[in-house]
Sequence to fold (203 residues):
Amino acid sequence: MGQHSFTKRQKHYLRFKRSMDIILSGFAILFFLPLFIIVAILIKLTSKGPIFFIQERVGKNKKIFKIIKFRTMKVDAPEIPPNKLTKGEQRAMLTSIGYFLRKTSIDELPQIFNIFVGHMSIIGPRPPAAKNENDIILERDKYDPSPNNLRPGLTGHAQVSGRMHEVKQKAELDGFYAKNFSFKLDFKIFFSTVKKIFKFEGS
Fold:
């Protein structure tokens, strides 16, 4: 549903947006490289396990890709969507540095590599986990155009509107974005995200 429902202006903007994603993520990789090295060392010094957390996610047109984040969870923590856990349960699964990485959203930074290669965009609906978030995928398909037909984002309209929405609320916010995305809306979401990061309002 909704695969061909974007306006002509939106289709032109999507091409421009992809070009900007490549340019900005390329600069970001170079800029954040020293931080990546520092965080990688801290993760290895404070917990057992790999530096990165790699997980299958659902991308544009429901194609599966592997997302990359800094690992914030203990290696034996189960893969359960955050909205199905209490804050206390989530906190208990985090490593000693994991809470800080999430609070500052630094754990999300490696996704700029996903953006550079085309799996993701800077702004868009967040990519659901392939294993256990089929509910949000089904809800999104109730909207025309479907948010599932866009590249998922590092941040999005639902994320700057609050972190703990129910599935239907998230899908509604994603549906609004899919219908109304534009340079102006993306600009607003980007700076709302920056504001949340500097206020330490991460997950």
In short: The mean pLDDT is 90. The radius of gyration is 17 Å. Residues 8-197 form one domain. Residues 8-46 form the longest helix (39 residues).
